[in-house]
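input
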Amino acid sequence: QVQFVESGVGLVQSGGSLRLSCAASGRTSSNYVMGWFRQSPGKEREFVVAISPSGGTTIYADSVKVRFTVSRDNAKNSVYLQMSSLKPEDTAVYYCAVRPYYLSKRASDYDYWGQGTQVTVSS
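output
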């Protein structure tokens, strides 16, 4: 199995920035799409962003467009989420995930998941 280790807890004031990292602890394929999802208590897991295997194509949730930027480093089997202009409503547990080949916004399409990273944005 592909195993990912995510960055730790992020705590930031509204308007601030955080960078999340998700690094594979084992072998991964260069053909994997990497994505980020988030989940708040009592809510469905929500798509945030996905990036194609080459890094050349990205899709973003409307709620995070412009503010968030995803990138990947295939040499490190890692994906990053740069978050700026953070809002309290961005508070959630953020999960990295992977699936083969094709971009998807559906959580059920992803095969491997990180352990989750708490992001808290204060007012």
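quick obs: The longest strand covers residues 92-100.
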